[in-house]
Amino acid sequence: MSMEMYPLIFEPILKDRIWGGTKLETDLGKTNLPTKTTGESWELSAVNGDVSVVKDGAYAGKPLTELLEKYPAEILGTKVHEQFGTQFPLLFKFLDAREDLSIQVHPNDELAKKRHNSFGKTEMWYVMQADEGSRIIVGFKHKSNPEEYLKHLEDKNLIEILNEVPAEKGQTFFLETGTIHAIGAGIVIAEIQQTSDITYRIYDWDRVDANGKGRELHVDLALDAMNYNTTDTQKNYTQEPNQSNVMVDCPYFTTSYLPLDGSAGKSGNGESFTVYICTDGAFSVELDGKKYDFKKGDTVLIPAAMQSYLLNGKATLLEISIS
């Protein structure tokens, strides 16, 4: 039986985080936040234990993994299916940092496979909102080494050797594995990453929970996962209206900036799925005479077999596929 074609949207998986807040509701329209410290909305996930469920239409209530077992090539695309089987290779999230996130690093594919039987975690951030004075911590100020890094960590002045960038709406950061980083307080981010939940937490600002307990740190694991060189993480991109303006192109995903003002026709070759994250405004996907409406805060999966459709509206979209 062939798959019914339409744009898929999923129930958000909301996560309480010590550093989270309420902007996922106030800014992005996520309802029923479990707590006033809800830091993450997992929009599209096939991570074990956190599998996304289709929100509406013919497949409402179906887990993403079940659809992938049944229609792998139709959803993932012929090329992606060939590479990943029935695994969904990316994870899409929104993050609301009311406080600073921990300073952390992610392992590469090789290390993650060896230690955790997982993918590594290459990721990118798009800043959707930034309070005045907020900042992103990304990479070292100058070329460092394990000795210098550990000394500053021990003396609780690690931040002195890290690169801090004032945060602004529209900024894009591409974080290859091994890049030391932290999202600062007062920022809402759209995050695109490999399907992996492996994080090595290095420093958590000496925070403790209600029971006086700090979160687990992974200083030893991080030592050989880290890139001690300076990194060029911030990406500039063009903003041609109704066009896909490439922001990040890497082996794991290609992300483009699509400022929609009117309409843009889209056609694919069936090799990869496409995901649209709406970071501002509202838009519709038109397919075979039917119209599907979406708004800011929606993350939409276009199955690879849905090869020809029209985007309409006034919106800022991130467009993601695997090339």
From TrEMBL:
It holds the Pfam family MPI_cupin_dom. Keywords: Isomerase, Metal-binding, Zinc. One of its GO terms (molecular function) is zinc ion binding. Zn(2+) binds at residues 106, 123, 181. Residues 248-318 form the Mannose-6-phosphate isomerase cupin domain. It comes from the Bacteria. InterPro entries: Carb_Metab_Reg_Kinase/Isom, Man6P_isomerase_Firm_short, MPI_cupin_dom, PMI_typeI_cat, RmlC-like_jellyroll, RmlC_Cupin_sf. The active site is at residue 201. Its cofactor is Zn(2+). Residues 12-118 form the Phosphomannose isomerase type I catalytic domain. Binds 1 zinc ion per subunit. GO terms for biological process: carbohydrate metabolic process. Transmembrane segments: none annotated. This is Phosphohexomutase. It comes from Flavobacterium album.
